[in-house]
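Memo to structure team: turn this sequence into structure tokens by end of day. - J.P.
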Amino acid sequence: MKNSSVSLITALVATIMFVAPFSGGVTLKDSSASVRDRNRALDPSHNRQAVSAGARATANPEKPPATTQAARVIGKIAFASDRDGNFEIYSMDADGGGQTRLTETPAEDYGPAWSPDGTRLAFVSTRDGNAEIYVMNADGTGQTRLTNNTASDLTPVWKPDGSQIGFVSNRDGNDEIYLMNPDGSNQTNLTQNQADDSSFSFSPQGNVITFSSAREDGDFDIYTMNANGGGVVRLTTSAGADINPTWSAQKITFQTNRDENDEIYSMGFNGGNQTRLTNNPEFDIDPAQSSDGTRICFATARDGNLEIYLMNADGTSLVRLTNNNAADIQPALQLNGVIPLPPSPGAASVQFSASNYSVNEGDAFATLTVIRTGDTSGISTVDFASVNGSATNRADYTYHFGTLRFNPGETSKTFIVLITDDVFIENDETITVTLSNPTGAVLGGLNTATLVIVDNDSAPPNVNPIDNARFFVTQHYADFLNRAPDQSGLDFWTNQITECGNNLPCLQLRRINVSAAFFLSIEFQQTGYLVYRIYKVAYGNLPGAPVPLRLNEFLPDTQQIGLGVIVGATGWEQQLENNKNAFVLDFVLRLRFTAAYPMTMSPVQFVDALYANAGVTPSATERTAAINEFGSATTTADTAARARVLRRVTENSSLAQQEFNKAFVLMQYFGYLRRNPNEAPDTDFSGYNFWLNKLNQFNGNFINAEMVKSFLDSGEYRRRFGP
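Reply from structure team:
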């Protein structure tokens, strides 16, 4: 970054020298509690589905068991895990890759269920004091409460046409099956029986429900009934508890302890041909079928703790999907999602070299190794990503996303995770690092790894480390450029601050200008700001929001464009150009983009739509040049031409000027606070709008607007690192 712009550095130094220091200033709202102060205490409700045998408790997240955009589209599996201390909802690819945490509360979140279109999840949460049904988008956003009563509402299941959500509730004194609209309205008791009616599943057509009930002999057995609650038929009669039935196009699977421990069984729709699919001394629970009935996902304790496995419909070809020391339970398969076939013998496989890594908090980074085995004669790639655990990206480490490429014969690759050396006295903390989207290989069993950050603080701190110039600059490299500092850049920017000595007005002004320099740098403008503009051009602003993208979209895409780029280093221009070309080509192939811009669109329609989203009126020459990228074609099926047009519009100078202040304000939230502007402690975009109006009022002068100063001085920013 040091050599990124001589004119920029000169201008900043001139500003530092000659702009008079200001006093006072507007400060940020400072009401957010530190992430590390969250109450992790369990707040269990009573899962009344846990019946008869003590084995039922192993499937209950409120009573944990004693044992402790790619080229191909893979279906998703949602599940509950207590790997971070309490049960939360996670999702992963159907091959076990890309394990991502979707909820983050001190309460218990569990029981995920996919909507038929795969865009939303219903789940159970105790965050409001007792178990209630919530829904959220597939990426974890938009978490909304649907039920609200003093009883326990559990086990949500979507009707196949999406018109209703079923759930189990004891609000009338015992467990019954209820139906409600997807917005939570019209909650209706369907079973109305004096005994407990529990876990259930809809038939593929939605006209029949299979469920477990203790209505006849006190044992839970499997029944069917019409969708209106009538026509009840008993399917199982064996001694023991039969629960958790799931329906597919081929059969019904269920969980039973008729063989002394819980196993997975299957049977016909009339209860015939009951067949045992699993057979081991430990619990096999929570079966979930693919919609075509060819694969079954389930949780098992056969490895010492509950993990998620996948198997064929006949119980063969077991594949382990999760691998950690906690309990992973209640898998839910995305309807009609593609499930990869089991790997063939000798196929190339990629996985972590170990299931656990550790790093001292005082170290700058942790190094993780991914190995390739089997056939290594070809090219293989695999994506990696870090996921919050008890450690968070706000205070403990820097999110890292990327792709590893194995050339022929290569068997090992490494990547690093940047660590933040805060001064809080705390327990050792963990993050999960996950692999996904392999090409030229399959994922091995160690598709996730746990990184333990070993705390190095033993005495209460006297100062906040962010007041140290070298720490301050190092953290800016992580927060704005997503990389470790190059030595010359680190020394240069640190010296810009330390040469003030003890002159406090000078120190304050230098810190402000050095901080702003990271946003203004060529490196950020050509990576982070470019990503911002690409989203603006492609989709306009988010619905009901003044910004075009969220932090979880911004970070991986910015890291993809910035990979290996250090402005001023040999070959940086070509590296950046290659990254840009590869990124936009990937971007136009993403499902969201192809859904918004069908290949059947004409070149004129495509170009005009992009400019409309950008909010820019092109000159006749600019518009014609963009349309001509498609030559004489009447459609926009040419992917390379689509990418070139997207980049043309994105790099429009009027757009860059129009969005500059908006992006500057948004990056205050993304960079300093590591959150979206409307996330806690904020509830809307009023703070963002305040700073945008302030920056516009002073014609983009961030010093006179006191914007950077206020974010740097805010308690929310400073508490990321110390008191």
